[in-house]
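Input.
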Amino acid sequence: MSTGYGFGKVILFGEHFVVHYRPTIASGISKKTVAELKAGTEPGFHITDNRLAAPGYIEKYAECQKKSVELMNSAIWHLDFEKNPVEVTLGGDLYCASGVGASAASCVAMARAVSEHFSLGLSEEQINQCGLEGDKAYAGTPSGIDNTCSTYGELIYFRKKKPGPNQMDRMKLGKPLDILMVSTGITTKTEEAVAGVKKRMGEHPEKYAKIFDQAEELVNQARDVLIAGDLLAIGKLMDRNHELLQKIEVSQEKLDYLVELTRKSGALGAKMTGGGLGGYMVALFADAETQEKTALACEKEGFKVIRARIG
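Output.
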C-alpha cells in the first residue's frame, strides 16, 4: 500500500485579495489529510472518503473530487486507470470544512500516493503543481496558496504573478504562534465567494481599489511583525484584516460571532480565514493555556475546533 499526505492550511493575512495579485501570508498546519492507495479490482480510480468533515461536506464536493483526479491525471500523471485500477481511502486528522485547504490537501495527498504507487518519482514542485491542477475542480481559478501550503507545510509570503512564476518566500517566525481555528459548520464554495467579490468590484471599482490597497499594506506590515515575533501587533493586524474582509462582504454572522467570542475569551486577534461566507475563522493567543480555555468555550457551544501551533 502507498501513502500520501497533504497539510491543512491557515491564511493569516490577505485571503481573497491574493486572487487579485495582492500578497498574502499563510501557513500549513500540523493537521493532515492522508491518502492510502492500493491496486484495485475494478477498472478506474475509486475513492472511499473517510475524512472527518462538516455535515454535508463530503457529499457536496464528491463530483469536484472526481474532477480533481481527472485534472491531475491529464496534466501530470498520464496514467490509464482502466488498465491499472486503484482504490484510494482518504482519512487523517484534518477536520474538513471550508477555509482550511481541505480540497488542496486531498489533491496533494493523492498525488503523493499515486507517485509512490506507480514509481513516478514526482518532485515536491510537481506534487505542488498536482495540487494546483486538482484544486481547479473546486475553486475554478485558485490562487495557488492552498496547494503550496498543503505541499510544503511552512509559513510563506505568497503573491500570484501574471505572467508567472508566482512569488513564494519562506518565512522565519520570530516566535511560534498558538492559534485556534474554529469551524462555523457551514460548507461553502470558494469559487462562489470569489465570484461575488469580482462582481462587486465591477460595481464599485474605486471603493474596492482602496480596500485592496489597504490590504496589501497590511500584509507587508504583518510580514515585519511576524518576523519580529510581536504577538500584540500581529493580533491587531488580524483584527484589521477581518474588518477589510467584512467590507468586501465575505464574512457572515456566524464568523463574526466566533471572532467576537474568541476575542472575549482572550485572543490577541481574530479573523475569518479562507473563502468566507462560512468555513473557518482563526484566533491568535499569547499562550497555550488561553488557547485551550477558548477552545473549550467554543466546543461547549457545539463548534468544531483545531488547536495548532505555527513555527
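DSSP finds ten helices and ten strands in the chain.
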